[in-house]
Amino acid sequence: MKTDSWQAFKNASLGADNDAYEIIARLDPEYFEYLKGLFVDATFGREGELPRKTKELIMVGITCALRLPRGIRIHIQRALNVGATPREVLEAMQVSVIPGGTPGLWQGVETLQEILKARGQEFK
């Protein structure tokens, strides 16, 4: 595993880790370089027109619409870590109801509540 690439990936993860990436990096470092390029260089680490908070809120909505529990958890954590309020996270989930239906919203609000409770925060 290349140290610089792994560190760049960890920094872009904002403390919401997905252990699968570490396994991929260990099993196939060359492929991990491509993933790092997409995740860090082209998307979340890139200083484009959208700030990181907005990108994470978009990902919250997408992962709720697709009902992806791991993605919901990771992107809620990251959105909160970059300054999104719980209410902004909720609104991203509410928008996801249009393409994804209410089950994704249910997963999202339950996950948000768990994360806030673990952080000692309340919904405001």
Short description:
Helices cover 78% and strands 0% of the residues.
Share of β-strand residues: under 5%
Helix content: over 70%
Based on the structure given, which CATH architecture of the largest domain is correct?
Up-down Bundle
Could you say what the CATH topology of the largest domain is called? AhpD-like
Shape: globular
Q: In total, how many beta strands?
A: 0
- Write the H/E string, N to C: HHHHHHH
Number of domains: 2
Any low-confidence stretches, pLDDT <50, length ≥5?
Answer: none
CATH class of the largest domain: Mainly Alpha
The helix-and-strand class reads: mainly alpha
Helix count equals 7
> Over the alpha carbons, how many angstroms does the gyration radius reach?
15 Å
Give me the CATH superfamily of the largest domain: AhpD-like
Major sheet description:
none
Cα distance spanning the termini: 42 Å
Mean pLDDT: 92
List the helices and strands and how they pair.
Blueprint lengths: L2 H11 L5 H9 L1 H16 L7 H15 L2 H13 L4 H15 L1 H18 L5
Helix pairs in contact: 1-3, 2-3, 4-5, 4-6, 4-7, 5-7, 6-7
Give your account of this protein's structure.
The chain is mainly α. The longest helix is centred in the last third of the chain and has 18 residues, at 102-119. Helix 1 (3-13) crosses helix 3 (29-44), helix 4 (52-66) runs antiparallel to helix 5 (69-81) and helix 4 crosses helix 6. Helix content is 78%, strand content 0%. The protein has two domains: 3-44, no CATH class; 52-119, AhpD-like, CATH 1.20.1290.
